[in-house]
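Proteins fold reproducibly. Take a tokenised chain:

. . .
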Amino acid sequence: MKLKDLSVVFGVILIVVMLIIPLPPGMLSFLIIINISLALLVLLVTMNMREALDFSIFPSLLLIMTLFRLGLNVSTTRSILSQGDAGGVVETFGTFVVGGNVLVGLVVFFILVIINFLVITKGAERVAEVAARFTLDAMPGKQMAIDADLNAGMISEQEARKRREKVSREADFYGAMDGASKFVKGDAIAGIIIVFINLIFGIIIGMVQNGMPFGEAASHYSLLTVGDGIVSQLPALLISTATAIIVTRAASEENLGSDVIAQLFAYPKMLYVAGGTIVILGLFTPIQNFVTLPIGGMLIVGGYRLSNVGNREKMELVESEEQVATDDMRKPENIVNLLTIDPIEFEFGYGLIPLADTNQGGDLLDRVVMIRRQLALELGLVIPVVRIRDNIQLAPNEYRIKIKGNEVGKGEIYLEHYLAISSGVDDPTITGIDTVEPAFGIPAKWITEDMKTNAEMAGYTVVDPPSVISTHLTEVLRNYAHELLGRQETKQLIDHLQENYPILVEEVTPNPLSVGDVQKVLAKLLKERVSIRNLPVIFETLADFSKVTTDPEILAEYVRQALAKQITNQYIQENNPLKVITLSGQVEKLIADHVQQTEHGNYLALDPSTSQAILENIRKQIEQMQLYNQTPIILCSPAIRMYVRELTERYFPQVPILSYNELDANIEIQSVGVVNIS
């Protein structure tokens, strides 16, 4: 243990010793001065802190100091009653401070107790109770505000973590202060009881045991009791004041003294009014002018000087701001900052501001946070922060989604309406604004709330505006997840994996695969909506096959085969066979024969007419499956899968292309269509 730790332990042990073992008067005087010094130090610290959490140890310190002071009371009481002496400090306070007058001393003591107990302690207790209650009630709102700022890109993850910790510490601190304020209240009550005990039993012991006359016993023990009471109430008053300051202190950039001066004299003209009032009070009342005129004159002169200083500071501030603005415009860094492009942007017209404004009940920011969490679980990718901003160039009800500065989605939202999505059969009684569901392109209508129930009964899927935006944003992020995964993001995933699988990571990267090679493999998986969350399996596969080839295309195919169970579970329906469209042997052979191998990789080189014929046949088979409300899936051999994907990617990007090796051996497969060349 360090020396500073031992000092605290020694102090607590000393408190226990004081409660049990009698201490000599000289030792008591030393400890009393220590008690007063500590109380004064605590008060000064509370006055110089900027916010309550700067002195977060205060509740525990308050308990220790209260126990220390009560231990001193026990020791001084024992010394007064047994020896008739409690040291020089107690005697000084009983004789010099109150002039040796017992009655004056008792009055001073009771005034100190009343100030401490009824004024400071009572108020501090109530403030601490209210602060604790409001701090706990405000915690959810503060957490949501932090999440909103994080989601809007105003703060980083690290800053958000610090703010959350601060919110938690504030709740703990004010909860502890609510209880700690009771220590001060109990200490004040204990001080009154101890004084009465010392006074009554001191007189009895002096007369019965020491044979002193009543007057002498009363005088001697009363002075010692009063001195002990005042010497204990003085640090108690200081600690109570410190408690009151810390629970009433609002967060600030400056300490209490600076804030008091700055805010009290923030309006110099008010000093003129105060000074003039004091001067008039002296002139028109019997109060002596030599008292009022100097004070009034000082206030007026102070107001004049502060007004001049304030005007000068304002002029200097304006000039400095103009100079700084001019200098900033000249800095080349400002031009560089303009080049930064946010990974994801969500812009909306002014008519949609209520969706993002929490004060108007908007929960868009919370929804975006949930979307990021959902996609992290679904895709295994940490989606970057979505920058949300209004754009006056857009129509009032319009919004658009950008990925790396490029528009990838847009839509139109009508507040106080609902989007009724058709199930295929339209009801003429359901009227509204015709539109298209932005995420999937399904015909829909914007209907009013009074038509909502009828639409639901007619088989329409009814969605509120925030859910429309959430669905659209989620679908866009799914489609463009591969563009959001760069080398930096890949490195973060690798570092996270390395914490638990260091050997596995070392075998794959940086040799034989660089971070860029791994990123290309993962991006190809995400492009076809294959989750990369199972990184250990992916890296196991890369470790096995990267010794054979470093081609990202081929490695991605091997990884897909290793993730067969995961891919199968994406498309299988419980207790139903997997319905697929297969390629005929002729088509597969045709594609395999037209694969060109070059030093830059392999690619498919079909003539346009053949490609068109294959694509046309695929389109017919897909339409046939959609007529029966079945999700189209194309199944082919592993050797040509990636080339079939290359062929269909532009025309059927949402149709999954699977190979036989990517399906679990235990599932049933049913071919419902065959793609032929003719």
